[in-house]
Amino acid sequence: MTSTRATMTTLDYATKDAIRDFLYYEAELLDDLRFGEWLEILDESIMYWAPVRTNRTFRDREFEWQEFGTSAYFEETHEFLEQRVRRLETHMAWAEEPASRTRHLITNVRIAAEANPGSYRVKSNFLVYRSRGERDQDVITGERRDVLVKADDCPAGFRLKHREIRFDMSTILVKNLSSFY
């Protein structure tokens, strides 16, 4: 995804606010464990993926992120995300039983209109705090690169069509990646 800076000024404030509200609403759904409702704001053609990050020298930093279709922490379609949610709802997903308590903080939202009307490229930074049991606590940070599409039939006003999750760390030192980002 290219920089959103060049086209940021062409969007009206109402659209920017609506997109930010969508991101905050999504965070609320995830933090409240309302995964079924979260699935409803995802586009049927969604690609939800997190490429592996490798440590590179400054001059080779353009090769830091693995390309789509190669190494990824996850690379999921709508169908696969539905399976994950159904599994969580069985209470037999032992990585999430008891369920993690999460708090998604979304910041530095940058928005650009795409050539296709009603489609927007959105970059945002995230911090996810996760607490599980009495002693397990994780802080996971990174950047999300999303494509949102306007959806009048969706109560959230948009649907998430694409999400690339770029974790800040190259070695993820958490017990599992069972949360959604």
From TrEMBL:
UniProt superkingdom: Bacteria
Annotated CDD domains: ring_hydroxylating_dioxygenases_beta
Keyword Ribonucleoprotein: no
Gene Ontology BP, a term: 3-phenylpropionate catabolic process
Record flagged with keyword Methyltransferase: no
UniProt keywords, alphabetically: Oxidoreductase
InterPro entries on file: NTF2-like_dom_sf, Rng_hydr_dOase-bsu
A molecular function GO annotation: oxidoreductase activity
Transmembrane segments: none
Coiled-coil residue windows: none
Family, per entry: Belongs to the bacterial ring-hydroxylating dioxygenase beta subunit family.
Name of this chain's protein: Benzene 1,2-dioxygenase
Lineage: Bacteria, Bacillati, Actinomycetota, Actinomycetes, Mycobacteriales
